[in-house]
Structure formats: C-alpha cells, structure tokens
Amino acid sequence: MHIIKSIRGLQAWRRKHENHKIGFVPTMGALHEGHLSLIRHACKHCSTVVVSIFVNPLQFGPGEDLSRYPRPVKSDQQLCRDAGVDLLFWPSSQEFYPQDFQTLVKVHRLSQRWEGEARPTHFEGVTTVVTKLLCLVRPDRCYLGQKDYQQLLVIKQLVQDLNIDTTIVRCPTIREADGLALSSRNRYLSANQRIQATSLFTALQQGVQAIKQGATNVWAIQSRMQKVLKKYPGIKIEYLAVCDAKSLDQLSQVKGEVVLMGAIQIGNVHLIDNILVKALKKS
After folding, report:
1. Close Cβ partners of 140 (under 8 Å, ≥ 6 residues apart)
2. Pick from 12, 114, 164, 217: most CB atoms within 10 A?
C-alpha cells in the first residue's frame, strides 16, 4: 500500500494509473467496520482502491469536536493495508487548504434542511472537500454509506450539477448487534449513553412498523417515534422526520419511498440515523 501526503504526489500517482478502474472511499479516519465494508465493496468492483483520511476542518462548526476528533494513525493505516487498499491519501490541513484558499462549494436546497439547519456550515465544508477529492482522485466509483443519507444525496447532486465523471455508490448502513449505527463518534459515549443511543434506531423502527401496518399520517408516525426517545431525559431530539426519499421534503402523508430520518444529542455527542421504507400500495 502506498501512502501519499501531498497533492502533487497524488496527481503524479493518478497520471500513472489512467487506465485503472479506480474505486474511492473518502473518510475522516477513526476507521471502523462501516468504512471497511465500503472498502470491500470497492475492492470487489474496482482494480485499484484509494482511501483518503482527512479530518476536514471546514465541516466542523464552532464548539464542535474538531480538536478531539479521534485520529488513530497507526491502526487506520494497518486496517487499510489489511483490507487491500492500494493508495492511502493522508494530507495535512495546511496541504489541503493553503493560506490563500478562497473557494467554497455549496449545494443549496438539499443542504439547507435537517442536518444543514442544525449545523449551518457543515455541508458547505463537506461539498468543498469532496469536490477537491473527486477532482484529485478522479475515481470511476465513489463509495458512501447510507448512514449519512442527506450527505449522500447532497454529494449525488454535486456530482450531477458539476458533471463530475464519477458514479456515487450507496452502501448499506453497518450496525452493532443492538442496532446502533457504526460511527467514529460512538467512542465518545459513556456506557449509559451507549445504551440510550440505541433508542434512535428503535424509534425509527417504530416508524417503519407503523408504515408497514398501513399508517400514512406523518404526524402520527412521528409521534410514535418521539415516544420512544422521550423515555430518556438525557436525549435531546434535534429532529425526527418522514421525508421524500429523493428531495428530503417533509411529507404530510406517506407515499412511495420515504426516508425516516433522526438526529439526537446525548451529552456532547451528535448521532444520526435513517431507514428507507416504501409505503403500502393501496388495493
């Protein structure tokens, strides 16, 4: 496995691999089974696999956890090596955003709600870093997890609007045995908070169950999900929503494919999750 830390080094490497089918997995490190599942998908379908590790300062808002975000350098390198990664791109912030850096990329409608409302500068940071990475790596396929569903749609829109010649591949959310979606931030949770955190997935499952039982009124479905989370006074509900799976518009009645989305705050830890579900067809 090659490790490259400079942009010039990555550009030189890419020119030597023009004829390779490249799969790309962008990450912020602190790798876990969720990331490794993306790498396995890339290895299965592409001849050359690139992983980036970059804790992107632009997507952290004031008071968020940039300084304490986990950076297990040696274990991340070993996990990539063991997973069959061909190239690990690991730039510094100074390398990626030099002192005179002035350009930001923004996807408007999709990024202004839900996570975008709770964290106003977050998606602008995401779309800027992803644009740079896609232009540098020029992958045939870029693998992203469903856990960050809004981010996935925002990046798909970015690729479409800017005519970037990359296919975005959505991969399933990887969960712990108790249902908690894998996240690098899970390690911040205390033992008690870890138990409470599973309630988000439980709440979303309640919404899915209601829809599969024929419920169509969104407010009733959301109320059923909220009841699960309100049992835990330590949980702050940031949002629970039933949305159109493509536009993320809030619905009043369930129809077609919808996404149940939720975000909670436990202590200083922000957790998100989602489930896709199709409404029952009327007979």
Report:
1. 21, 22, 23, 46, 166, 167
2. 114
For residue 72, how many C-alpha atoms fall within 13 Å in the half-sphere facing its CB?
A: 11
Model pLDDT, residue 124: 96
Residues 6 or more apart from 134 whose CB is under 8 A from it? 24, 142, 159, 164, 166
Domains in the chain, please, with CATH?
2-171 (3.40.50.620), 184-275 (3.30.1300.10)
Per DSSP, the residues of 92-147 read: -HHHHS-TT--------GGGSSTHHHHSTTHHHHHHHHHHHHHHHH--SEEEEEGG
The string of DSSP letters for 85-104 reads -SEEE---HHHHS-TT----
In the predicted structure, residue 179 carries a pLDDT above the cut 70: yes
Q: Beta strand 269-278 with 257-266: parallel, antiparallel or unpaired?
A: antiparallel
Q: By the 8 A CB rule, do 53 and 89 touch? A: yes
Neighbouring C-beta atoms of residue 227, cutoff 10 Å: 11
User: Taking residues 164-183, what's their average pLDDT?
Assistant: 96
The pLDDT of residue 283 is above 60 = no
Q: What is the pLDDT of residues 226-279, one digit of tens each?
A: 999 999 989 999 999 999 999 999 999 999 999 999 999 999 899 999 999 998
pLDDT at 56 over 90: yes
Residue whose tokens read 């991969």: 171
Q: Which residues are catalytically annotated?
A: 35
Return all residues near 158 (Cβ < 8 A) that are at least 6 apart: 105, 107, 127, 130, 131, 164
pTM: 0.95
C-alpha 214/C-alpha 211 separation (Å) is: 5
- Residue 204: in which H helix or E strand, if any? helix 191-212
